[in-house]
Each structure stands twice: as C-alpha cells, then as structure tokens.
Specification:
Length: 253
C-alpha cells in the first residue's frame, strides 16, 4: 500500500472566495483558530468543496502573499483532495516504488513532451516497452457512488470543459496510432473513497467521445481511489470500474 503524507497541516473554515482583499479566484479568506488568513485555492472553488462554510485542510506557504494552500476539503465526514498536483505526486511515488497498476517500471521521467503536449510521465518497462502516462485528478462525484471528470466552468455549453484534457487524450490516441508498440495510459486518480465507479461527464460529449475513441484505438484507461485523512492519503490497492459507454446499455472496462 502506498501512503502519501501531508506535513504541517492545519484546518480552517472558508469564509469567502474570492477573498475580500485579493480578488483573484485562486485566493480565499479562511479562519484558522479565530484569525483570518489569505489562502491559495489551487482548484478555485472545486464545485463548492472549497467555498464557505466548508472545512479545509491546508499546508503553510511561507514567503507568499497567501499564508497557506488548500490541500483537502471535508464534505459530509469525507476528506477529499482538491489540489490536482498531489495526484501527480502520488503517481510519481507509485512509479518509484514500482507499484503502479500494470506497469513494471525500469526507468521513467516526469513532464515529457510528445507531439504538442507535455505529459506527466514517460518511461520504459523492464521488458523494454515504452509507455506514456497522463494523470487526471478527480475530486467530485455526480451521484451516491459515481466519480466523474471533467467538471468546471465554460463559456458555452457546446465547448469542452477542459480543452487541455481534451488535447491530452487526442494526442495520446495519435501517439498510439503512430507507435502501436508504445503503451499510452490515461489515469484518473479519484481523490475520495466513497465511490464505486467512474465515468466521463456526460455533459461534455466532446471529451466523452474523445476518451471513447482513444480507448477503441488502444489507449489504456485506469482509475483508482485514494482514501484521505487530515494528514495522509492511502492508495486502496484496487482499480475502479469505468463506465465508458452507457447510452445503449452499460459497458464497463
């Protein structure tokens, strides 16, 4: 089991985002032990998780305008990681320990550019097969048991929610088609444990179709959960079923 530890954490309550003092949407006012602080919120409001009056867990950021950075939010007794960079750190730790599902790592590098995108990881397995691995952080669920991605603001409903995520999956498919012997992997790290399955947000048909097509062309898709407390996250050592097609009946991979 992999454990990712948070150090020097403090808890507080969100008062307002954006802050009354700095109007950036990435800054919130948070009360800690009765005193108000400026706090960096890397995922904005995270669909309400990092909004007033929710409890959040933070780490100090000395030397910055913001005294702390939000790492987790608490919702109905469940701690949820809302800082997307932590998902990359967790996968990096898994690759170092060679416990990432289905990859037998020989060597790897972080932030590798292929085509027109920078992917989170690329490397070689012990039998000399190359791989590319892109990580997406999933903090939200759409019903009692289902986590989903992507979510967020968009100007038009017809636009993709995350153009960057769309570009990544399209280029993973292109790489796979051009290099059939290379493993191209899209990994969804679900940063909560109160779910049983994962799906692509049906309100983003552009991204949903792109993920479906990428899978049909050989891009591997994997999802797993991290169970969080205030100080650490534990990899639950199992993959989560992915509901990739459900318009004409459920098809789970």
């Amino acid at each position: 089991m992999i454990v990712y530890r948070l150090s020097d954490v403090v808890s507080g309550q969100v008062v307002k985002r954006p802050s009354n003092n700095i109007k950036s949407p990435y800054v919130a006012d948070v009360i800690i032990d009765g005193e108000e602080y400026l706090v960096h919120s890397p995922s904005l409001g995270c669909s309400g998780l990092c909004e007033a009056p929710n409890e959040v867990v933070m780490i100090p950021t000395p030397g910055n305008k913001c005294s702390y950075r939000i790492q987790l939010a608490k919702y109905k007794k469940v701690y949820i990681c809302t800082n997307p960079k932590i998902s990359e750190h967790i996968v990096n730790k898994m690759l170092k320990k060679n416990i990432f599902p289905s990859i037998d790592v020989q060597s790897y590098k972080a932030e590798v550019t292929k085509l027109n995108s920078r992917f989170d990881f690329a490397g070689v397995e012990k039998h000399n097969q190359q791989f590319i691995l892109e990580v997406k952080s999933v903090p939200l669920k759409c019903d009692k048991h289902t986590a989903y991605f992507p979510t967020g603001f968009r100007k038009k409903k017809s636009d993709p929610i995350s153009p960057r995520a769309l570009k990544h999956v399209q280029e993973l498919q292109k790489i796979k088609q051009e290099h059939t012997d290379m493993r191209c992997i899209l990994c969804f790290v679900i940063n909560r444990h109160d779910i049983k399955e994962f799906k692509i947000n049906p309100d983003d048909p552009i991204y949903r179709k792109a993920v479906q097509e990428a899978w049909m062309h050989g891009v591997e898709i994997i999802a797993f959960c991290i169970k969080w407390s205030t100080t650490k996250g534990k990899y639950l050592n199992k993959t989560i079923p992915i509901k990739l097609f459900d318009e004409y009946g459920v098809r789970t991979i």
